[in-house]
Structures are given as structure tokens and as C-alpha cells.
Amino acid sequence: MSLTEDKLIQMYTTMVRIREFETKVEEFFAAGKIPGFVHLYIGEEAVATGTCAVLTDKDYITSTHRGHGHLIAKGGDLKRMMAELFGKKTGYCKGKGGSMHIADVDLGILGANGIVGGGGPIANGAALAAQYRGTDQVAVCFFGDGASNQGTTQEAMNLASAWKLPVVFVNENNGYGISCPTCKSMAVADIADRAAAYDMPGVVVDGNDVVAVYEAVAEAVDRARRGDGPSLIECKTYRWRGHFEGDACTYRDEAEVQSWMAKDPIKRLREKLLEQGILTEDKDREIRDAIARELEAAVAFAEESPLPAPEEVLEDVYA
Amino acid sequence: MSLTEDKLIQMYTTMVRIREFETKVEEFFAAGKIPGFVHLYIGEEAVATGTCAVLTDKDYITSTHRGHGHLIAKGGDLKRMMAELFGKKTGYCKGKGGSMHIADVDLGILGANGIVGGGGPIANGAALAAQYRGTDQVAVCFFGDGASNQGTTQEAMNLASAWKLPVVFVNENNGYGISCPTCKSMAVADIADRAAAYDMPGVVVDGNDVVAVYEAVAEAVDRARRGDGPSLIECKTYRWRGHFEGDACTYRDEAEVQSWMAKDPIKRLREKLLEQGILTEDKDREIRDAIARELEAAVAFAEESPLPAPEEVLEDVYA
Amino acid sequence: MPTKTYLQAINEALRQEMERDPDVFIMGEDVGPFGGCFGVTKGLYEQFGEKRVKDTPITESAIIGAATGAAAAGLRPVCEIMFVDFIGVALDQLFNQAAKMRYMFGGKAKIPMVLRTPQGAGIGAAAQHSQSLEAWFAHVPGLKVAMPATPYDAKGLLITAIRDDNPVVFLEHKLLYGLEGDVPDEPYTVPFGKAQVHREGTDVTIVATAKMLHTSLEAADVLAKDGMSAEVIDPRTLVPFDTDTIVESVKKTHGLVVVHEAVKHAGFGAEIAAQVAELAFDYLDGPIVRVAAPFTPVPFSPPLEQAYIPGVDDVVTAVKKIRA
Amino acid sequence: MPTKTYLQAINEALRQEMERDPDVFIMGEDVGPFGGCFGVTKGLYEQFGEKRVKDTPITESAIIGAATGAAAAGLRPVCEIMFVDFIGVALDQLFNQAAKMRYMFGGKAKIPMVLRTPQGAGIGAAAQHSQSLEAWFAHVPGLKVAMPATPYDAKGLLITAIRDDNPVVFLEHKLLYGLEGDVPDEPYTVPFGKAQVHREGTDVTIVATAKMLHTSLEAADVLAKDGMSAEVIDPRTLVPFDTDTIVESVKKTHGLVVVHEAVKHAGFGAEIAAQVAELAFDYLDGPIVRVAAPFTPVPFSPPLEQAYIPGVDDVVTAVKKIRA
Ligand SMILES: Cc1ncc(C[n+]2csc(CCOP(=O)(O)OP(=O)(O)O)c2C)c(N)n1
Ligand SMILES: Cc1ncc(C[n+]2csc(CCOP(=O)(O)OP(=O)(O)O)c2C)c(N)n1
Ligand SMILES: [Mg+2]
Ligand SMILES: [Mg+2]
């Protein structure tokens, strides 16, 4: 499972793209241009990136309220994402969904989700469709440490395992569900240990190491494609920002935040790639410049796009 | 944890009382005197009996749709139970509940439950009240193999463990959820293995051995009373009858049924007690006669009691 | 026309749609070899095998979610919830996920799934196995809600439901399973949003759903003996809802009685009454009366349960109240 | 009288009831040191400690069940569901367990619990964080349902709810949290089942709940300029429901407009309309009109969301429709 240089650069690029996108969102949210709630993915980029790097466009994911990273990693278009966040008609959901509901069914993205634990049962359904049709598609369910306690998540793992569905449950353990530390919401130390309750493999990986995530997910995806059923991968990571923008984050101490920021997944990969000569400072600048241009274009697109007309409220309820 | 002779005789008596009660219910259901659904406990008597023998009147239980055994073991009054099954005004629920909702809050019986997995969260609540008040009460949640998959059950185990609530989760694994063999509804071999997902002790016991059940539950109850939190005890057992009365039970083969009937928990205890001289044939006859008289009285009470008056439908909705 | 029971009609619709379209499949608790708690899926496992008739664990959220995800991926699942009363453990997957996906995604998803489930009191199954919850589903934009009262409609509406590209909640009444009626052998559809006038009349309009249709038809017989001519209408689907047929009828009869088995308070009958009170007010010559269950859980004991379920007398009394 | 926000009024009710009765405690997600997602429980953890202000895992069934069981065992829990929209994962514990226990057990249990939860659109939180679901709760026998529209009522109704021996669903409107009004410092109760006439009038009765009360009061101002006198009533509780006050008002004004933020179809406004269409029909001189959200999920983008939420104009138009 050795990664090609191209793949590593691709993953690096994706992580930077997520980070920069989120940084823009932070800025425009603060400026009052983005309404509603936004939950930023900064600090957790390696999880979505390492996971989706294993997948093809035909594979499915279900995302969460903290979904921008998943969407970008799965190939989501920054323009339509940004336009959606701005509530514009040209956005992924024509302005109807916003941050918590961005989806691109054509890319297998079955939506961000405003309901904690909402994605597991749906990921199963997509995987069931693959199994039913005999394709080799898989479905990845992203979910948080908080979501791992939700009954729907646990039911989903049970069904996936009982039916040997091609699902990979990717847990993003960032240590908190809003203000509640993981250790207060569950007695178990590792969420991966729950895999045994459903007789599926469960592993813990360093969620800030994109290669480790990639490798663990690749193994689980192989297993799923072979018809051997689901796996649970717990990625230990950390969110740098508050739960949502606007959260003063009084429940975490600064030392903890700093120690995790020191483990920045992007910096880490960057240094490794520079060291190995896979990335150069020039190449890095090039990548960052390209992303900056892409983002500028996305923001311009979002800013210039029209708002939906009020009467559009009535459209798209039924097929 | 050696059981006194009295306690053994008491448990034997309870098991016989359950068996005989259920046999009467079977008879009166067939005769059309008992409306609705009844789910008989025949074959599983050791689980309720061994468990409730550990408890006091102040402890709580939550029961299931297959609840008669739990109620009797916890001290439920046969007259009022039978009257309830007959739909009479003198029944436990004034005829409003029937088999699936019999309760005796004064005895800590928080109700049979028509919802599979409904009891776990409620048992937690009763245990929380004990913890809140600093009493040494515990709550036992009875639940089936089928119920162990339900999200509510899994959430309940997680909360109980995170909060170290004095709860004992007693799983009655009778091999089936209606027609669905346990092995088809979950990939894991032992439900007790799920305890690890919540960092609580999990043990498998022979659910047809009342002493084994008693001992496992006693240890778990001690632990709970000490403030060390919940446990999961899986009791492997079997139901002799169909899922509900009227179920032709085509999904089980006769050899399987016979092999389990050979492991009759009552016969087993009886033989052991006879062997050890704790029970004699005379004493046994005495016990059975007393139960027969008690049941006759219960049936007479049920038969002779008035039906509720139609206008009572409107009572008891609000306190 | 051949005579079949309501149950057989549903079973036949499932079978024929599964024969027609390989993307249609069934999931639910004990729907396989057991044939379903009420026997609705009998024989389908034998005909279509385990792949297309799937027994599930007792996890309703996982069932509805699996249907939703599979539908989003292009299949056409029909899932069964054994009793409508169990929806409380799984409503999120239906009302926040399946129902809203299309809208939230800006019209870019299709969720062609059916959730079949029996409702209703009358078998002594008590408070958690006897409810009628159609008002909840009808309040959810994105869902369609069908509620057949006859074997003919059961088959035709179910086929429509399966072919519909939206999530459809298909509410069967467990006491109607044994009801016989004319049901063509070949597949056919009954359109959504088209009420059925079951009996024409001139003095009062009775709108009734599910089992209450039959109660109301009986009441109409009784009223006829007293010289009152009742028009009896079954809306058949609550979403979409055929306002026109009812308004037209009220314009003719000038009176409305609404009958359902669910509790009256905030029941769907209120919606019907409210629509008529807005759209046909000037044609009404007296109060709109609703006949429905009292505001209590469903009791177990037969005399209580019978007192709970609206009866022929209740309908007759209601009509006489406005036609006195 | 001191001025407080709706949010402060709720916070004060919680604090004072917890001071009064050691059996009252709070459970919910992030209700502890964080003070709740909207800040409603701020300061309570500091005052009462971890034992009485309990942060829970994100498992709403476990929360409601824990409240139900603790209430059955004699405590008086007040649990918070962070947004009403999340009820779908946990409704069973509320509607089949907490609400029905007393009845199913033949009157032999008391479940004195409160479930607090915010409803409502207007902050761009989209389809799964903006709903108004009061009609669902009001359809469940065994539950009481309160829906305060003012700071004064928020405090008084919540104290009543906590002292009530039944499960009470207490529906806050998230856009009202910042609304200021007179709120006495001392504890007081507002009775359940007693509507409040907020403005007297003679030409039309407007019944409105939660935020729509304020929209309707504004509409009444606009109407007054056009010479129309509207009486504006807030039912305050949907169960029990004060039919009399509304019927009396309609007897005086001869017209009714019902306003709520939930979608119209099968919304609680239908119940109000239906009751009046039955009990005050002869006093009505024209159709009953409902003003409510369209039959769509709540959209995200501000212009869509504003189009979704009923506005002052919609109420004015509705009144003019029947008073033209
Ligand atoms: C069913 C449900 N309950 C509660 C919430 C409110 N909520 C939104 S995000 C969140 C925390 C989720 O924690 P976790 O799963 O760890 O994800 P993270 O935010 O850390 O990425 C909560 C409680 C919700 N959206 N849905
Ligand atoms: C939420 C819910 N889903 C489904 C049912 C229907 N049902 C009643 S009992 C039962 C099987 C339960 O199996 P198990 O938990 O193993 O208990 P057992 O009947 O074997 O004692 C089912 C599916 C229900 N009552 N509640
Ligand atoms: Mg987290
Ligand atoms: Mg079982």
C-alpha cells in the first residue's frame, strides 16, 4: 500500500484546499456574509482527505454537520459550495440547504447532515444498493465521537455487520461533542473498541496523519469491496476552532489547543514531503497559489450569484 | 454467595408459580377469555427468578412484552395480574393495560413494555433517582436478544456506564426475535461481548440454571450498590411456546425445541433439590398444590370481577 | 371481478411490482419466511428469495435509513414497520432524512421508497400497538400519505406508491386485512390526490378514512332509514389531499361530518374541517362536526376499546346534531 | 416590574424552582458549564453543581427515558432537547412511554417531568433546526403542551410545568429568546388551559402562538390604521386548550384568523379552526382563514426563509380577505 508521489501531492493539495476554504468561510461568516451555523473542519483535514483518497466517484459518503472537509475531499466543487454557504441560487442546493445540507449525489455525496448520527443508516442503504446490484462500490459514514453514542449509529453498525454491507465507519474523534469531552459521554477509552460489539474490525489511527488514515481506510475498503463487510476506523484528531463559529470555546484549555495545533496535519505532511523531496517550496507555493486563485474565483462566484427568488421556496419538495 | 435452603425453595416455588401461571394463560387465551396478544415466558423462568431473587421491593425493574415472569418474580399479585389479562376492572391496570403493560410501581415494577428496547432508558432513570437520592436501590432492565440491537438499548447502556448508574442489564437470549434467529440479526456470538463497548462487565450465564443467574446478578447488583456502575448479564435460554400465542412457530425445528425442553430449568432445579434433600416429593406436592389453589383463586377472581364501564375509558390520562 | 381480501390485495401489489421491476425489494422485521406479523408478505420470500425479501434486526431507524439510502442510490425499497406505533424510535430517518433530502439538496435527489405500516385499534393490542398516527405524517412536507380503506384501493394505491419517486407512507388498517372486495388480477394504479365518493347523497357530506369509511357507510344506511341522504367520501390520500371533491360535495349537501379513528385533538379531521371552513363556508348551513377517538391512549379491555373506537351510533348522532 | 428577556425568564424559573424543590434537576446536552446551546441554563451549573445540572451524551432517547424513569421514581426532571427537530430520534420515549404510562398502568404512576425545547425558523439554521412541531405533541394524550410567547408567560408557564404532575412539553421559540418584557422577580405561575387576550377588538379574532403572536399584534396595528379592530389571543397551552376564550371572542367579532409558524397542512391551526367551526359556527359571518408556513421544509437562504415565515402582511391580507 505504498502511496505514489502523485497521490501524496494530491492529498496534500486537498488538505490545503480544505484549510483555505474553511479559513475563507471563517472570514465571511465573521463578516456576516454567511448566515446560519457553520462548523469548521480546520485541524481535522487529514481524516476526510486520507479517507476520500481511497474512494472513487462511484463510492458513497455520508457526511455530518462538520461537512465541508468531507465534501471537498470527495471532489466537491468549491464554487457551488461557497455559493451555497452564501445562500445563493447557484449553490449546490440552490440556497435551500446551507452548510449543514450540502450534497452532490452525482459524486456519491449523500449530504452533510444536521442530525448527529443521521448518516449511518443512510450509508448502509447506499451500501445495500451496491450489494444488491453486485457493484464494488462502498459507502463511508463519517461520524463524530459524540455521534458514536447515538442509537442510530449503533444500529447502523449492527445492521452493516449482520448483512456484511460494504461500509466503512470513519469516526472523527476530536475529543468533544460541542462542550462535552468524550470521556464524559462514554466510559470507554477508544471508540474503536465498539467494533467488537458488532464483530467487525476496529482500529485506532492517528487522525492527524493522512497516510495512516489512508492506509487504514484502504484496508477497510478492500475488505468491504471483497464482500467481507464493514469496519470501524477511529481517527484521533482535534478541531482548532469552536464547535461552531461564534463558540467562545471556554471548555477547553489553551495548552490543550496549542498542543494539538502543534500536531497540525498539514504542516506534518508538508515537512515530510519536503524532507523526502516530493514537495519543494516552489511546488508548495504553486499549489497554494492555485488554491488561492480557485478560492478567489469561488468567492467571486458566490458574491456575484443571485439570491434565490422568494417564490422558489415552494419548489423541490416533491419529485 | 451460597444460597440458603429457604432461598432455593423460594426460587423453585417462584419458577413453578410462573410456569403454572403461564400455562393457565395459555389455556384461557385458547379459550378466548384473554384478548389481545400474550407472549409466554415458559422455559425462561430461571432468568426472572434468579434475577429478582437478588432484589428487594425497593429495587426497580423494567420488563418487556414477555413480562409475566418478571412480574411474578418481583412479587406481583397473581389475582390482579390475571384480572388484568382478562381485561377486568380489578386488574393491575383496571383493564387499561393488558399483558403488555402490567405494572406495579409500589413494587418497583415500572411496567411491561410493548416497545422492544423501551425499558433501558427508563431503568436508567430509576437508577438515576437512586443515585440522586443516595439510596442503595438498583434497577434491572430485562431485554431480549432482539432488543439488544435496538438503539435505545445501546444508548441506555452507554449512559448507564458514563454515569455509573446502578443498573443491571439482564439479557434474555432465547435465540429468536419473533422468527428471526439471533445469528441473523447480529454478527456477534455473545451479546455479553457488547458490554466492552461501554466498559462494563459482561458475562454469559446458563439462563436455565437459576443458581447461575442468581450468582451473576448478585455480583452485578453488589457492584451497582457499591456505586461501581452497570453490568450486562446474558442469560442463554429458550422459549418453549411460539413468539405469541397463536404463532405456529414454523421457523424452529422440532429437534431444537426438544433439546431445549430437555434442559427445563424447573426440572433441573427440582432434581438437584431432591438430590440434595432440600426438596422432597411431599414438599414439592405441597408447593404445587398451594400454587394450584392460588391460581384457582386468581382465575376465579378474574372471572368474577366486573369489566370496566365504558366511561372509564376517559379516566387516568392525567394526574 | 375476482374477490380478494385487503391483505391479499396488498400482497398482490407487492408481488406484481417486484415481478415488474427488479429494483423493488422488501425489508422489515419478520417479512421473510414468517410472512410478516399479519401475513402481508406471505409467499414473497419463497418467490423472490432472501435478496429481495429481507428480514431485518429490530432496529427501525436502521430499516428506514437503509431504505432511504438505497432509494437515494436508485433502488425502490418497500419497508415495513410492524406497527405504526413503533415509528417513535425511527421518525428522524423518515421526517428529517427521507422526506427532506430532496428539498435540502436543492431538488437533486429522488427518494422513491414506501413505508408500509398497519394502524388502528380493535384487537385488544392496547396503547402501544393500536394507534392511528396519520396526522403526524401528513404534517411533514416531502412525504406522501396514503390510507386505503378497501381492497381495491389497497392494491391500486400501493402500486402507485411504489412507482412514485417520493417517500410514501402507506397506512394499512389492521382490522381491514380480512375485508373482502373486488380486486382485478392485473396490476393497476389508483391515483394519489383523488378522493372517492363511495355513496352519493344530498343532505350531508361524511368524510371518513380507513376503517371509519365502513362505519360511516353503515351510518349512512341507518340515516337513510330516517330519511337522511348522506354522501360518503374517502380522501384515500392525505398528501396530496383532494380538497376539491370534498368542497364540491359540501356545496351540494351544505353540511360536513368528518370521521376518523385517531384522537380528535389535532387529528387530521381538523385539517379537513379547517379547509372546508375556509373554502366552502358560504355553503355550510351549520357547524362542522368531527367524530373521532377521545383524548386518551388506546385502552386494552374490550368494553373500553369499543368505547374508544368511533362507532356507527357516533356518526349517526353527529349527523343528527347538525341535521336536527 | 423588572424587565427581562424571555431567555432570562426561563432561566429564572429554572433557578427558582430548583431552589424551592431539591427534586427538580436538569439534564441535557451542553446544559452544564456551557450553559446550553442558546444559553438558557447559564449559571445553573455553577449554582447547583453537577448533580443537579447534568450534561448528557448526544442520545436523546436516553435523555427522555432517564427523565421518565426518574419521574416515575419520584423526582421532577427538566430535560432539554437542544432543538425540537431532534425529537425524531427519541419520540418513542416521550409519546409511548412518558405520556402513556399513567393510563396504561391504570392511573398508578405519576410522571412529573418537563421537556424543554426550542422551535422556530429565522436564524438560517435550515430544515433540520428550524421546525415548529407543536401539532405532533398536541396529538398525544397524556402530554401537556405549553408554548409561551412572552417573557412573562415563559416564566409563569414553566413554573406551572415543573409543578405539574404530568409530562409537559415546553416549546420555546428561539427567536423570542432576546425579547424583553415585564417579569416579576418572585416565582409565580401562569395557569395551563387559559388563553390570554393580548389585544381586545371587535371586528375579527386572531389566534396566534409563539412568535406569531407578535406578528399578529403588529398586524393588528396595521389593521387599526385601516379602521379594523382585531382581537388578538394567544392560547398559551395547546393541551389543555382554552376553547372557551376563543369561542367567546368569535361570538363577539364573528370572524377568525388563525396564525402559526408551523406548516399549515395538519398544523395545530386546523384544530383551532375546527373547534370554532363546530362550536361557534352560528356566530361566524365568513370563512375561517389560517395563516401558516407553506408545505415545504424550512429553507436556508434568508430570502427563502423570510418567504417561508408568515409575516405581518400575510396576517393583514388574511383578515382583509374575510373583512373585505
Ligand atoms: C440528534 C442531534 N442531537 C444533537 C444535535 C446538536 N449537535 C450538533 S453537533 C453536536 C456535537 C457533535 O459532536 P461530534 O459527533 O463529536 O461531532 P463534532 O462536532 O465534534 O465534529 C451536537 C450535540 C444534533 N444536531 N442532532
Ligand atoms: C420497537 C419495536 N419494534 C418491533 C416490535 C415488534 N416485536 C415485538 S416482540 C419482538 C421480538 C422481540 O425479540 P426479543 O427482544 O428477542 O424478545 P423475545 O420476544 O424473544 O422475548 C418484536 C419484533 C416492537 N414491539 N417494538
Ligand atoms: Mg467530536
Ligand atoms: Mg428473543
TrEMBL record, chains A, B:
Per the UniProt entry, what are the Gene Ontology biological process annotations, in alphabetical order? pyruvate decarboxylation to acetyl-CoA
Gene Ontology molecular function terms on file: pyruvate dehydrogenase (acetyl-transferring) activity
- Name the InterPro entries for this protein: DH_E1, PDH_E1_Alpha_Subunit, THDP-binding
Keyword hit for Oxidoreductase:
yes
**CDD domains under this entry?**
TPP_E1_PDC_ADC_BCADC (cd02000)
The alphabetical list of record keywords is:
Oxidoreductase, Pyruvate, Thiamine pyrophosphate
> Needs which cofactor?
thiamine diphosphate
Q: Does the keyword Ribonucleoprotein apply?
A: no
Checking Pfam families in the record gives:
E1_dh
Which intervals hold domain Dehydrogenase E1 component? 14-310
On assembly, the entry states: Heterodimer of an alpha and a beta chain.
Cross-referenced PANTHER family, in alphabetical order? PYRUVATE DEHYDROGENASE E1 COMPONENT SUBUNIT ALPHA, PYRUVATE DEHYDROGENASE E1 COMPONENT, ALPHA SUBUNIT BACTERIAL AND ORGANELLAR
Q: What is this protein called?
A: Pyruvate dehydrogenase E1 component subunit alpha
Query: Species name for this entry?
Result: Desulfacinum infernum DSM 9756
From TrEMBL, chains C, D:
**InterPro entries, alphabetized:** THDP-binding (IPR029061), Transketo_C/PFOR_II (IPR009014), Transketolase-like_Pyr-bd (IPR005475), Transketolase_C (IPR033248)
Q: Domain (Transketolase-like pyrimidine-binding): give its ranges.
A: 4-179
| Pfam families with a match to the protein in the record | Transket_pyr, Transketolase_C
> Which SMART domains does the record match to this protein?
Transket_pyr (SM00861)
List keywords of the entry alphabetically: Oxidoreductase, Pyruvate, Thiamine pyrophosphate
Q: Does the keyword Oxidoreductase apply?
A: yes
Does the record's keyword annotation contain Oxidoreductase?
Answer: yes
CC cofactor: thiamine diphosphate
NCBIfam families per the UniProt record, alphabetical = PRK09212.1
Xref: PANTHER family: PYRUVATE DEHYDROGENASE E1 COMPONENT BETA SUBUNIT (PTHR43257), PYRUVATE DEHYDROGENASE E1 COMPONENT SUBUNIT BETA (PTHR43257:SF2)
Q: What is this protein called?
A: Pyruvate dehydrogenase E1 component beta subunit
Q: Which organism is it from?
A: Desulfacinum infernum DSM 9756
